[in-house]
Design brief:
Elements (H helix, E strand, L loop, with lengths): L2 H9 L13 H9 L2 H14 L4 H25 L3 H8 L2 H33 L6 H17 L2 H26 L3 H9 L8 H10 L8 H8 L8 H31 L12 H11 L1 H37 L4 H7 L5 H12 L10 H13 L1 H16 L11 H21 L7
Helix pairs in contact: 2-11, 2-12, 2-14, 3-10, 3-12, 3-17, 4-9, 4-10, 4-12, 4-18, 5-6, 6-7, 6-14, 6-17, 7-14, 7-16, 8-12, 8-14, 10-17, 10-19, 12-13, 13-14, 14-15, 14-16, 18-19
Length: 428
């Protein structure tokens, strides 16, 4: 955010609702969550099942809207991040579980994002840049961009966000042939045979998973603290997930036209190129480049968002494990701190060996399913923290009946999906 924009935020009341102020850290979080997970989960679901799983995109966005609001409300009420809540207010094994999961998830997501960036740049350059080479280049460039600081990172992200959104939505609009089928897919939930894994992948991939925790730290970067910010935060998050849902629906619509209708099986080689070629066939070369640029912008924005935000989580967790005081932990989460930079180095280098594995779609699908496992953990911990550990005073409310119902439904939904996948519940 520019210095003038930051000054406008700091000088106006948090409750004001100018258009400018509604473009907040929520869109950064959405862009970090969108990318390999959203694009590939929606592409594979649309390729295999057409428009039947559009409802899952809406459910994923709605669910994660409630989860992110819970994360933000906890911080506004207590001044602490969700990770600090887990480590200080819950049994020791909760923090230990998250620490182990964070390492596994980081390796998975970094491999998925670099692979997706490799696919994107290879398609965009007509093969002039190879997929492995493109993956390595994007990982290194992403790490270098983060080191430039939050202001530079935010400016780059806003350009990528605008590019990816308008490109992909425009592509979806020109490919729609049956509006009634789109409405049916959105309004009538159904799970076709053998679609359970795709549902889980969509729920895990659409809207991000661990990246939701980044909202805590981007709130701090924007100096958003205290209960007075709750209305702004809710508006910011709502806009972010509306953006996410429209984007995911758009990708699925294009995939339906490119793969499902002509009954073409999706492959690593065709995952991006056939989508772009479908747009070329409909509206000419502009369609090819609109989708190609939109795909690349989406996955690179996601890579940048993850590279910038995940080191916050490692640095914060490290400080909590060492039982450092609050002011020391705050310094650890600065981009210039050693723990942050070591974590950034880890996430930049870890995916490089995977760049040479010729299964990018498999790695991305694995990441989305692994990411989905974080959702019930987050829902369960927020049910506890925001009902029993959040202060009853200070102007911040505990969970509403609706919020508790949504979080409990998330636990039930993932239990049912898991039971179906394990063969304990009949598939339909």
């Amino acid at each position: 955010m520019s210095s003038a924009g930051r000054q406008q935020i700091e000088e106006s009341s948090p409750g004001s609702f100018s258009v400018f102020r509604l473009i907040g850290p929520g869109l950064l979080m959405a862009a970090a969550g969108i990318g390999a997970g959203d694009v590939v989960a929606a592409t594979m679901a649309g390729a295999s099942f057409g428009l039947a799983l559009l409802w899952a995109v809406v459910v994923a966005a709605l669910l994660k809207c409630f989860l992110t609001e819970g994360i933000a409300r906890w911080q506004l009420a207590t001044g602490t991040t969700a990770i600090e809540g887990w480590c200080s207010r819950m049994p020791w094994w909760v923090g230990a579980y998250f620490g182990l999961y964070l390492v596994l998830w980081t390796v998975s997501v970094s491999a998925a994002l670099t692979g997706a960036c490799g696919l994107g740049i290879t398609n965009l350059t007509g093969g002039a840049i190879s997929r492995p080479g493109g993956a390595v280049i994007h990982s290194l460039v992403g790490g270098a961009c983060v080191l430039l600081g939050f202001t530079a990172f935010e400016k780059v992200m806003r350009v990528l966000i605008g590019t990816m959104f308008f490109s992909i939505v425009a592509c979806a609009i020109v490919t729609i042939q049956d509006p009634a089928a789109v409405l049916r897919g959105l309004a009538v939930p159904s799970v076709p045979q053998h679609a359970v894994t795709s549902v889980l992948s969509v729920l895990g991939g659409i809207g991000g998973s661990v990246t939701m925790l980044a909202y805590n730290y981007w709130m701090r970067e924007e100096k958003m603290a205290g209960p007075a910010w709750i209305r702004y935060v809710r508006a910011d998050i709502t806009i972010a997930y509306a953006f996410t849902a429209v984007f995911g629906i758009s990708v699925m619509i294009v995939a339906n036209q490119a793969f499902h209708i002509p009954a073409v099986e999706i492959t690593n080689a065709q995952a991006v190129t056939r989508m772009a070629e479908t747009l070329r066939h409909i509206i000419g070369p502009a369609g090819f480049y609109a989708y190609s640029i939109g795909f690349w912008a989406a996955v690179f924005a996601s890579l940048l968002g993850v590279w910038q935000s995940v080191p916050y989580l490692f640095a914060d967790f490290y400080g909590l494990m060492r039982k450092y005081p609050r002011d020391t932990r705050d310094r650890l989460t600065a981009v210039s701190s050693r723990p942050y930079r070591l974590a950034l180095l880890f996430i930049t280098v870890a995916p490089i060996p995977f760049a040479f594995v010729d299964q990018p779609l498999f790695m991305i699908r694995t990441f989305t399913i692994l990411g989905s496992l974080f959702i019930p953990f987050l829902a369960a911990t927020l049910l506890y923290l925001n009902n029993f550990a959040i202060p009853a005073h200070g102007g911040m409310r505990r969970n509403s009946v609706l919020t508790n119902a949504v979080l409990a439904s998330a636990l039930v939904l993932f239990a049912l999906v898991g039971a179906v996948e394990a063969g304990l519940w009949p598939k339909s």
